[in-house]
Write a structure and sequence with these properties.
The structure is a homodimer. Chain A has eleven helices and 16 strands. Chain A is an alpha+beta fold and about 350 residues long. Chain A has two domains: about 200 residues, CV3147-like domain (CV3147-like fold, 3-Layer(aba) Sandwich); about 120 residues, CV3147-like. In chain A, the strands form two sheets. In chain A, strands 1, 2, 3, 4, 5, 6, 7, 8 and 9 form a nine-stranded mixed sheet that branches. In chain A, a hairpin with a 7-residue loop joins strand 11 and strand 12. In chain A, helix 1 packs antiparallel against helix 2, helix 1 packs across helix 9 and helix 9 packs antiparallel against helix 10. Chain A is globular, with a radius of gyration of 19 Å. At the A-B interface, helix 4, strand 7 and helix 7 of A face helix 4, strand 7 and helix 7 of B.
């Protein structure tokens, strides 16, 4: 497994996180150049540890940003937001964190804990709460397992910091934090949940940072050979390529803190079945010729056929030539409790049953 | 001056606070019956102290509710909100409050610190930060004097509690807390600002709880005599009656956390000049026959001619027979720094200069 992230690893980790982002989690190009700048300035590598290396009674906290990816590529962070959020939370609870946790491995949120870890001199746990990206706070294995989402802290680039001391449900945590994020300009650093090492080990999806690195390595190696990485990347995560084609339509609007929309991909050559995909920050459901072929929590990942780079929902546009991958969700997301929170019905598709792709992500 | 508030005082204090509320600050009938219930249940009176009785290094905090009065009369508080907000703030800053402060004497917010004082066993300072009610957080003498609004705490009836740890301007405090209040259902307990006794004494408007009591006493005495209390109440606060008439039109909408609107009052008898008043929770500007006769920060107070009871903007309706009082603002609200925050321009009337009524409230 990954023991550190150095300058030479950032591109691969960013690509893998982008793929696992299934369209969301924030633009990984921006996350990567920020991470590289921190690595260069500080002259040390990011330390990565296994969840099982964390003592049961140590306190850890996840960190990332909240907001729509369409906002994140225009409103850059100042750089101090993670430290502000984490320090505010430490002050509030009166204890210090021993390690940082990736809240969602997908997209730039897979890289940001590495940045915060460098800024605070803390190791980052190899694993996360989603094995992908999801648009809402309550959609991780920590919340599903019953870890309280509060106290949590939001911070913006002006040093504004807010602690949600107690909220009586994960859905309210999502609702109130989202609303405040919109007020703060549409993106903000979010530190939560605070956990003990024991809770971390019970609920974390292990090894997802390592998986991101392996996926990125495959893409970069294929690119050197001039080969299409899609099949190899898919098989690395026990999935398959669902479709190859050209984006012919994108509807996208940024509303109430989310990038929402739909895209249509037409096949190359003579075939006439198109693929439709709907998204809320992340890709949610894929239809081929009108038939559902993949749904949340399974991962629907879009790769640029030119270079294997993942394409976030904020960058989808007419004419892109893409491969659509379907990867099976981690097993932790397929329990009845998890599916109630991250299955198709939770996203407004009650008529679509979850028909899992075979296998598991890891 | 007032040294305590007992059961026999509540009606007078509620009437006076209602008058000083200039239409806002929350319905005083509801505030009064809640205060009376707490007094009965606890069997002790509210202790009132002078600002000068607070030690320089003691910590005090103001408490009230945030929200539109139109919401406040429909969505009642559970009763535990003030304690939740104040305790959360004490936990966050790591020290205890020695006394509570009235953030705005106007409306039910003039009574709520008395309730919280009973619940927590704390005295309440005779004075406030407005000498009236204003719709927004930054509009008090503490904020105008430079006391930071953060940390501040919001709490709702479900035990949800949020600490605004640091916000870089009073306007952002207003914006973010208002937005969260709307999410919390349109009204919430708000504890802020945290001050030292030294800051309190520098910025508080002294004696406004006593003034409210005296105004209420005049109304109740007039009612017993069957007399119109308007002139006597006005002169008690160095003001005058601007108009008497019948409400003939009310436009009112609850939008983005405020009750906003306009009312028209027609004179009795043959005269044809009507009075128009616009409000944002509180009455802002009064025109008589198209001429401005009173503006913020001076107080525009509407009394029911039947019984002298003040009428909040949430209860204005066609047919009410009313007296409109104009009371001069406290001198603290008429400095250039204060007028920049609470003058007509701050409420969106840049073309209307503030032409103060003669004298001062106290």
């Amino acid at each position: 497994m990954l023991r550190q992230v150095a300058l030479e690893d950032t591109h691969a980790v960013a690509i893998g996180a982008g793929i696992l982002g299934t369209g969301g989690g924030g633009n990984t190009y921006l996350g990567r150049i920020w991470l590289e700048q921190e690595l260069r300035q500080r002259g040390v590598n990011c330390t990565v540890i296994a969840a099982d290396d964390v003592a049961d009674d140590a306190m850890v906290c996840a960190i990332g940003t909240m907001g729509a990816p369409t906002v994140g590529i225009e409103k850059l962070l100042r750089g101090s937001e993670f430290v502000t959020a984490l320090r505010t939370l430490e002050d509030h609870i009166g204890s210090s964190f021993a390690a940082l946790v990736v809240s969602e491995i997908g997209g730039s949120n897979g890289l940001r804990p590495l940045i915060a870890g460098l800024q605070l001199g803390l190791p980052v746990v190899d694993g996360d709460g989603m094995g992908r990206a999801f648009p809402e706070l309550q959609m991780d294995t920590f919340a599903i397992g019953g870890v309280p989402l509060t106290p949590m802290a939001l911070a913006d680039s002006h040093g504004n910091a807010v602690v949600f001391h107690h909220l009586d449900s994960p859905l309210k945590a999502e609702q109130y934090a989202r609303s405040l994020t919109v007020e703060l300009g549409g993106s903000a650093a979010l530190a939560m949940p605070v956990m003990s090492g024991e809770q971390l080990k019970r609920f974390v999806i292990r090894g997802t940072l390592s998986l991101a690195k392996r996926m990125g390595d495959v893409v970069l190696a294929s690119r050197l050979r001039g080969a299409d990485a899609a099949d190899e990347v898919a098989s690395l995560a026990n999935g398959r390529v669902l479709f190859r084609g050209k984006v012919v339509d994108v509807e996208r609007r940024t509303t109430r803190g989310f990038a929402r929309g739909k895209l249509t991909i037409a096949p190359f050559g003579g075939a006439d079945e198109v693929m439709d995909i709907v998204f809320q920050n992340e890709n949610l459901v894929a239809w081929l010729g009108g038939e559902v072929v993949c749904t949340v929590p399974d991962l629907i990942c879009i790769l640029n056929l030119e270079d294997g780079e993942p394409i976030g929902t904020e960058l989808l546009r007419y004419g892109l030539r893409v491969a659509v991958l379907g990867l099976p969700a981690p097993i932790e997301l397929k329990t009845p409790e998890a599916l109630a929170v991250v299955g198709p019905e939770a996203f407004g598709y009650p008529a679509i049953p979850f028909q899992p792709l075979p296998g598991n992500l890891l």
